[in-house]
Amino acid sequence: VSKYGKLLDQVSDKIFAGIIGINLLFINFNYIFVLLGELLIAGVNVGYKLKYNDLDITSTKMGKVKEWPLFVTLALGFLSPINSTLLTISNISILLTTLFQLKTAESYLISNNKEVKKLENKDYNTKTEILEENENEFF
């Protein structure tokens, strides 16, 4: 509910996926795509937060949906050494998860751009109000 809680949720998801993904690289190097997808999403959000400190970055619906294929893919990674069928399913799951990650990064770009416009409008309205007050005081 709080800003801190929202941030903690996003960071803990990235840390969890990162640690497991790095370990899965030793089993199947294709997991590099999953790691790069998570880095892309984190990069988009961190980039916006660094540029716009007041920006409230919240999870998107696509970001929440993406978690399910991500966790299934990570689980399949540990099962894939059992047989070649599971390895094939794991590779297909990696591809699908990477597509979800790309859509998630896009959804964050769209969401963050909307929030930036709200901040800019708020700043513009505040500046206009200050100018009007100063103008009224002058006359």
Can you give me a brief rundown of this structure?
Helices cover 84% and strands 0% of the residues. The chain is mostly helical and 139 residues long.
How many DSSP E strands?
A: 0
Helix and strand content put the structural class at mainly alpha
The count of helical stretches stands at: 4
Order of helices and strands: HHHH
The main β sheet shows up as: none
What gross morphology would you assign? elongated
Query: What helical percentage do the residues reach?
Result: over 70%
Multimeric status of the protein: single chain
The CA-CA distance between the termini, in Å, is: 46 Å
> Rg, please?
21 Å
Strand content: under 5%
Arithmetic mean of pLDDT: 87
Descriptive account of the structure:
By secondary structure, this protein is an all-alpha fold. Helix content is 84%, strand content 0%. It has helices at residues 3-24, 31-51, 61-79, 84-138. The protein is elongated.
Question: Which features characterize this protein?
Answer:
mainly alpha; 4 helices; 139 residues
